[in-house]
Amino acid sequence: MLANQNLSRARLLGKHRWPKAYLCRTVTNDLKPLQQFDVRNKVITITGGARDLGLEMATQLSEAGAHVYCLDRLDCPQPEVPFSQIRHSSLGGSLHYRKVDVVDAQSVNKVISSIAEHHERLDGLVAAAGITRAEAALKHSPEDLETVINVNFSGAFNSAAATARQMLKFKTSGSILLVASIIIQLGKNLAQEWGPVHADGSGGIRVNNLCPGHVYTPMANRTMQDKPGAKEVWEQENMLGRIAKPQEFRGVALFLMSNASSFMTGSTVVVDGGHTAW
Questions:
Q1: Per DSSP, what are the bridge partners of residue 99?
Q2: Residue 22 in this model has a pLDDT that exceeds 60
Q3: What's the distance, Cα to Cα, between the start and end of the chain in Å?
């Protein structure tokens, strides 16, 4: 293997013998690793951003310099502390809140359009809005199922479509992250459709999925309270033997919203403590 690597390197360099110092200096200047994660002045919306996973991602991105708009159906975010502390970050970022129900496509379009118009750009979306039902499958009523599908699937599509319209309008090659395993195929289809760059400069929109496994959220906490032993079962189902904290997904959001993931689309990022790796 090592011999083959050396042979390939020799063929690449041909007869040129570049000094090692020159090669190292060139690579270092070209990579600029920290700049790849630069999200300063990017405009990003996050659905389900009133609390937990969505709010943690929003906090990270705003602290890193992005203008972040949290969208949720709650009257106010819970807790409100991050909004008062990070109204304007030291890197120029800001954190805002807009009340909207992702199931209402018209309202979602209106809110996201107003944000894009204000900044004359839209760079990213994290679709983290989602709900679940703790009841057994056979106890789900048709109304319960419809509600879950409307929020988790239709809501994600409404948000992604509204975002893509503005990205195409302002010709910003942005990034969309869908947080839910149920919409993996949707993410792949949207990545294929919105990825190519068109002659007018629009397009180049990346769409990826995030599967977070079990995370401490109000919905998860209610399930653990209603079903004794659920916490222990969830902890035993992954390799790390614990449930994730919302703040552990900050780095993933920063990576996927920045240029560090510029060649990544149609992919699924699994951050589940090894739950699906058994």
A1: 72
A2: no
A3: 30
Q: Beta 206-211 vs 43-47: how paired, if at all?
A: unpaired
Least confident of 57-61, 172-176, 218-222: 218-222
- Quick check: bond before 19 cis, omega within 30? no
Nearest to 72 by CA among 95, 55, 86, 90: 55
Helix pair angle (105-119, 155-170), 10° resolution: 30
Q: How far apart are CA 31 and CA 47, in angstroms?
A: 32
CA distance 152 to 32: 37
Interatomic CA distance for residues 128 and 152, integer angstroms: 9
What are the residue ranges of helices labelled H in the chain?
2-13, 20-31, 33-36, 52-63, 81-85, 105-119, 142-149, 155-170, 184-194, 218-226, 230-236, 250-257
Render pLDDT for 42-53 as a digit per residue (tens, 0 to 9).
999 999 999 888
The mean pLDDT value for 101-107 works out to 97
Q: Are 24 and 31 in contact (CB under 8 A)?
A: no
pLDDT for res 87: 63
Query: Is a pLDDT exceeding 90 seen at residue 36?
Result: no
Place of tokens 């300063």: 40
Q: Which residues pair with 69 in a beta bridge?
A: 45, 96
What does the mean pLDDT of the chain come to? 85
Buried b or exposed e, range 133-153, using 16+ CB within 10 angstroms: eeeeeeeeeeeeeeebebbbb
Q: Please give the model's pTM, rounded to 2 decimal places.
A: 0.81
Instruction: Supply φ then ψ for residue 134, to 5 degrees.
Output: -80, -15
pLDDT tens track for 136-171: 778 888 998 899 899 999 999 999 999 999 999 999
CA 240-241-246 angle, 5° bins = 75
